[in-house]
Specification:
There is one protein chain. By secondary structure, the chain is α/β, with parallel strands linked by helices. It is 60% helix and 12% strand. The protein has a single domain, classed as ATP synthase, F1 complex, gamma subunit (Pyruvate Kinase, Chain: A, domain 1, 3-Layer(aba) Sandwich). A five-stranded mixed β-sheet has the order 3-2-1-4-5. β2, α4 and β3 form a beta-alpha-beta unit. The two termini are 31 Å apart.
Length: 291
C-alpha cells in the first residue's frame, strides 16, 4: 500500500488538475456561446443574398459564369478545417477519418495546426495552411476563401470542398464534407441558400420591372464571390463552435473524473492513516506488555 505522503501528493496533483479543467471548461463555454451568436448573426445577410440572386436568376445566362460552368473533375480541392490545439475529444480524429477515405486525386488546404500536421505527416498534397483565431474574423477567413477560389479559377483544382465539424448541438458535432464549388445550378443554389437563411418562400416569380447596373450578368458575377466568401466563413464559425463545444464537454468529463478519483484517493488515504494509527497502538500495547 502507498504511504500517506505519496497519497497526499497525488491528492494535491488531482486537485490542481480538477481546478485547471474546470477553468478550461468555463472558457470553452464562453467561447462557444460567442461562436454560436456569430453564426446566427449571418442569417440576415444570407437572406438578403438569396432575395437578390432570386431576382437575378431569370435574367442571366448561367453558363457564362465560371462558378456555374461544369467541368471534368480531375483534382479535388479540399479545405480541411481543424483546431490549433488539442483537448477537444475525438473532434480532429473524426475529421481525419474523412480525409483518409478520399481515394481520388486531391489537393489540400488546411485551417488549423492539427490538420496541417496530419496532412504533412501522411504525405498528402498540402498546398497551404492558414491559422484563424478563436474570434474568426471575416478578414481572416476571406484570405482562405479567396485563395481557394484562385486555385479553382486557375484550374489547379476542379472543386472546392470543405471538411469541417458541423455544430449540431452542444453534445453532437457532425464531421462532414460540404461541396462549395462548382455550383450545380443557380436555382438549386438559391433554394439551398434560402433554406440556410431560414427563408420559407422563394421569389423566383418576381415579375417586377428591374434595372440592373451595369447589367444583370455583371451583378451576378459580383455577388457569387461574396457568397463563396461568406459561405466558407459560416462553415468556419460552425467549426469553431464545434471545437469549443467539444473542448467544453471533454474538460467537463476530465473534471468529473478528477472529482471521482479524488474521492477514491481520499478514501485510500483515510484507510492508510487508520492502518498506521492501528499499527502504532499495537506496537505501544506490545511494548507495555513486554515491560
Amino acid at each position: 500500500m502507498p504511504s500517506t505522503r505519496d497519497i497526499r501528493r497525488r491528492i494535491k496533483s488531482v486537485k490542481n488538475t480538477r481546478q485547471i479543467t474546470r477553468a478550461m471548461e468555463l472558457v470553452a463555454a464562453s467561447k462557444m456561446k460567442k461562436a454560436q451568436h456569430a453564426a446566427l448573426a449571418g442569417r440576415p445577410y444570407a437572406q438578403l443574398m438569396a432575395t437578390m440572386l432570386a431576382a437575378l436568376a431569370p435574367r442571366v445566362d448561367e453558363s457564362q459564369h465560371a462558378f456555374l460552368a461544369r467541368r471534368e473533375v480531375k483534382t479535388r480541392g479540399i479545405l480541411l478545417i481543424s483546431t490549433d490545439k488539442g483537448l477537444c475529444g475525438p473532434l480532429n480524429s473524426n475529421l481525419f477519418k474523412l480525409v483518409t477515405e478520399i481515394r481520388t486525386p486531391a489537393k489540400f488546404v488546411a485551417v488549423g495546426k492539427k490538420g496541417a500536421q496530419f496532412l504533412a505527416r501522411t504525405r498528402r498534397d498540402l498546398l497551404a495552411d492558414f491559422s484563424v483565431s478563436d474570434r474568426a474574423s471575416f478578414v481572416e477567413v476571406r484570405t482562405v476563401s479567396e485563395y481557394m477560389v484562385k486555385l479553382f479559377l486557375e484550374g489547379t483544382i476542379d472543386t472546392v470542398e470543405v471538411i469541417y465539424a458541423r455544430f449540431k448541438n452542444t453534445l453532437v458535432q457532425e464531421p462532414m464534407v460540404r461541396p462549395v464549388l462548382p455550383l450545380s445550378n443557380l436555382r438549386q443554389f438559391i433554394e439551398a441558400l434560402q433554406q440556410h437563411a431560414g427563408v420559407v418562400a422563394n421569389e423566383f416569380n418576381d415579375t417586377r420591372d428591374m434595372l440592373f447596373e451595369p447589367s444583370a450578368q455583371a451583378v451576378l458575377e459580383a455577388l457569387l464571390p461574396f457568397y463563396v466568401n461568406r459561405h466558407i466563413y459560416q462553415l468556419v464559425l460552425s467549426a469553431k463552435a464545434s471545437e469549443q463545444s467539444a473542448r467544453m464537454v471533454a474538460m467537463k468529463t476530465a473534471k468529473d473524473n478528477a472529482t471521482k478519483l479524488l474521492g477514491d484517493l481520499t478514501l485510500e488515504y483515510n484507510k492508510a492513516r487508520q492502518a498506521a494509527i492501528t499499527q502504532e497502538i499495537l506496537e505501544i500495547a506490545a511494548a507495555s506488555f513486554a515491560a
